[in-house]
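Work Package 3 (structural annotation) set out to generate three-dimensional models for the target panel prioritized at the project kickoff. During this period the team completed the workflow that converts sequence records into discrete structure tokens, so that structures can be stored uniformly alongside our sequence database. As a representative example, we reproduce one entry of 49 residues exactly as it appears in the project archive.
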Amino acid sequence: TRPTASVAEHVKIVEAVLAGDEAHAVDLMTEHLEAGKRRILNPSRFPVS
């Protein structure tokens, strides 16, 4: 499910932060946010009647 996948993404982000891998954490966070933006702005969510 999406919530389960989201939690897994958050775990990976936190692991990268705690490991001091700033670049990887930034990459993971950027992808996580961009994917969310794509889902939210998906035109199929707003069908035209």
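The chain has one domain: 2-44.
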